[in-house]
Design goal:
Layout: H1 4-10, H2 15-37, H3 39-48, H4 58-61, H5 69-77, H6 91-97, H7 100-121, E1 125-128, E2 138-141, H8 143-160, E3 168-170, H9 178-190, E4 194-196, H10 200-214, E5 219-222, H11 224-237, E6 246-249, H12 256-268, E7 275-282, E8 287-290, E9 302-303, E10 309-314, E11 328-334, E12 345-351, E13 355-356, E14 369-370, E15 374-376, E16 385-388, E17 391-394, H13 395-404, E18 408-417, E19 426-434, H14 441-455, E20 461-464, H15 467-474, E21 485-487
Parallel strand pairs: 3-4, 3-5, 5-6, 6-7, 18-21, 19-20
Antiparallel strand pairs: 1-2, 7-8, 9-14, 10-11, 11-12, 12-15, 13-14, 16-17, 18-19
The protein binds zinc ion (ZN).
């Protein structure tokens, strides 16, 4: 059973004190968990000549090398190192590394204590990374980690200002990915009714709309693309949205213009005061973080948990730490987990404005916040970066441009080769459906100009489509996740 008081206290503790608590938690975690039980990090520490007791603060962590996605892929590909990132307690490691009192408790507790220990460290759940460019990487959770994940989501609910009797519709895709399970566990942990719809593929959009009406859903959670689709369909079907007070989006970046479009549909369906906020989470953290309510065009940033993990911000070129509030790549170290754990993991996410420890101007919480303006670091393996016509383009910029245009209802980007010739030139095509009452031809020039401005690449073709056709191209009702970017170029 969680203690909400712990979080309330943390969220009101001054930053200097929080940093001290974080350093102490890190030091203990390294000494008693990470070094003794992780085969991977024991080797990393030894190779760097760092003894676990020398890590007393976040600054000391900098003596250790980064962990990259490539490290995880390589470890997973080799049967001998497959479980390298998983904490495995052995009697010998406990004897050498645990403090006397902790060992004594284990001895005095006898069989029951040993069984509790086994339970808390044995994986019973997995999620996988997503991404087209590489094999999915498995991350193991133990019962302890499921408690931590539930606690993380409980904090998102608290930050959002949710009342305990709010019913939540979980439209995240039903899949072995973090988002669906984080939301579901949040309900288990806090005793809220979470309706697991699984998104469009499982229940269909009509099914989701019926659920909102019948169950008087207060809170809708899903991916930006699918939630927008559902809200538009609600307007078309005349669904009563008057019970909805909150929408939380995850798994993708949320452009402010899209928030405003969602609020318009919600209010047309009878919703009153409604907030739309974003979340940030990733498989390697096995956790997500949320924004507190703010106006749609301003973001307070993602509120993170200094007792459960550490965010460093580095210069992606040199690896050196940058100052507070400066742009840089986010690097994550878990300090609370069992199962698969990473230390100094390079997320590949560049936070514009980095991390701040200033109290939040919207809610007053003192815990640190990660800027919600995130971009991919120029890593050629990253999912969203691709070379089009010789220019490196972040596809998410094109996505932001199209989602923000008030006249555009739905869109899809198609990349292909001229005449389907593998050696031919790249072609960038945009398909879009205009919103009701907007003349499609009037949008073509704007789309062309805005994409050129954002990416320095001009689309070769911009095609207006009917909404019905475009929803089919996207696979909105049939795919786990809609196909926003279709890369038809031979690999
Ligand atoms: Zn806040």
């Amino acid at each position: 059973m969680r203690s909400p008081r712990t979080w309330e206290r943390l969220a009101a503790t001054p930053a200097a004190e929080l940093r001290r608590l974080q350093d102490a938690t890190l030091a203990r975690y390294v000494r008693e968990e990470l070094y003794p039980f992780s085969a991977r990090y024991r080797r990393v520490f030894d190779a760097a000549g760092v003894e676990p007791r020398q890590v007393r603060s976040v600054d000391d962590l900098r003596r250790l090398p980064f962990t990259t996605k490539q490290d995880l892929l390589e470890a997973q590909a080799n049967p001998e190192t497959k479980r390298d990132f998983v904490l495995v307690p052995t009697p010998g490691a406990i004897r050498s590394h645990w403090p006397f009192l902790r060992k004594l408790a284990l001895v005095v507790g006898g069989t029951r204590s040993r069984e509790a220990l086994r339970f808390a460290y044995t994986p019973n759940f997995l999620t996988f990374t997503t991404g087209r460019s590489s094999e999915p990487v498995a991350f193991a959770y133990t019962p302890h980690d499921l408690d931590v994940l539930g606690e993380g989501t409980a904090r998102i609910l608290d930050i959002a200002g949710s009342a305990p009797d709010e019913r939540i519709l979980n439209m995240m895709p039903f899949a072995p990915h973090l988002a669906f399970w984080a939301v579901t566990l949040g309900g288990f942990t806090t005793g809220r009714l979470v309706l697991p719809s699984g998104g469009g593929k499982v229940l269909g959009t009509h099914g989701n709309l019926r659920m909102i009406e019948r169950m008087k859903v207060a809170w809708i959670v899903g991916t930006p693309g699918y939630v927008y689709h559902v809200l538009r369909e609600a307007r078309k079907e005349g669904t009563d949205l008057s019970s909805v007070v909150r929408v939380t989006l995850g798994a993708e970046k949320v452009p402010p213009g899209l928030k405003a479009k969602m609020i318009e549909h919600l209010q047309a369906g009878g919703a009153g005061q409604v907030t739309v906020s974003g979340t940030y989470g990733f498989t390697e953290a096995r956790m997500a973080f949320g924004e507190c309510p703010s106006s749609p065009d301003e973001s307070p940033g993602y509120h993170v948990y200094p007792d459960l993990g550490i965010f460093e911000v580095i210069d992606p070129e040199t690896g050196d730490p940058v100052g507070e509030g400066e742009d840089g790549e986010l690097v994550y170290t878990g300090i609370s987990g069992h199962g698969s754990v990473v230390c100094r993991y390079r997320t590949g996410d560049l936070a514009v404005g980095g991390v701040t420890w200033e109290p939040c101007p919207w809610c007053g919480r003192t815990t640190p916040r990660v800027s919600s303006e995130l971009r991919r670091v120029s890593d050629r393996h990253a999912l969203s970066l691709t070379k089009i016509k010789g220019t490196l383009v972040d596809l998410s910029h094109i996505g932001t441009v199209l989602s923000e245009l008030a006249g555009v209802d739905e869109w899809q980007v198609v990349l292909r080769k001229e005449d389907d010739d593998p050696l031919g030139l790249d072609r960038l095509e945009v398909r879009f459906a205009a919103r009701q009452g907007v003349e499609p031809a009037s949008l073509i020039d704007t789309i062309k100009r805005e994409i050129l401005e954002a990416t320095e690449v001009a689309p070769n073709e911009i095609t207006p489509c009917s909404l019905e056709d475009l929803l089919k191209f996207l696979g909105m009702e049939t795919e786990m996740k809609e196909k926003r970017f279709l890369d038809l170029r031979p690999q």
